[in-house]
């Protein structure tokens, strides 16, 4: 990721706090959509298509995207330029999937 891209990125902690504050599945989905909307396609251009096509339409998409990104991260670890991009995406969707599970658990 280029220097200019790094300066435009919102720190992951801010996104994680949004997830932690979510009290409904819809809030997590909305946060995931917002997060994805800020990703510049150029930043993902070097990744295989399945990792560039991140779409969140509903809560079922979050665990699916998380699993896809986890596979991609394992594959990309040998290619340093791709690892940073996938690590951020994977971190976000890991946190979102975890919080979604917490919200779904009966109290």
Can you characterise this structure?
The structure is a single chain. Helix 2 (12-21) runs parallel beside helix 7, helix 3 runs antiparallel to helix 7 and helix 6 (61-76) runs antiparallel to helix 7 (80-104). The longest helix is centred in the C-terminal third of the chain and has 25 residues, at 80-104. This protein has helices at 3-8, 12-21, 25-37, 41-44, 49-52, 61-76, 80-104. It has one domain. The chain contains seven helices and no strands. Helix content is 73%, strand content 0%. It has 107 residues and is mainly alpha-helical.
Whole-number tally of structural domains: 1
| Secondary-structure element order, N to C | HHHHHHH
Mean pLDDT: 82
Amino-to-carboxy terminus distance: 42 Å
Low-pLDDT segments, ≥5 res? 1-8
Main beta-sheet strand count, sense and barrel state = none
Give the structural class: mainly alpha
Rg, alpha carbons: 14 Å
Total helices: the number is 7
Shape: elongated
Helix content: over 70%
Strand content: under 5%
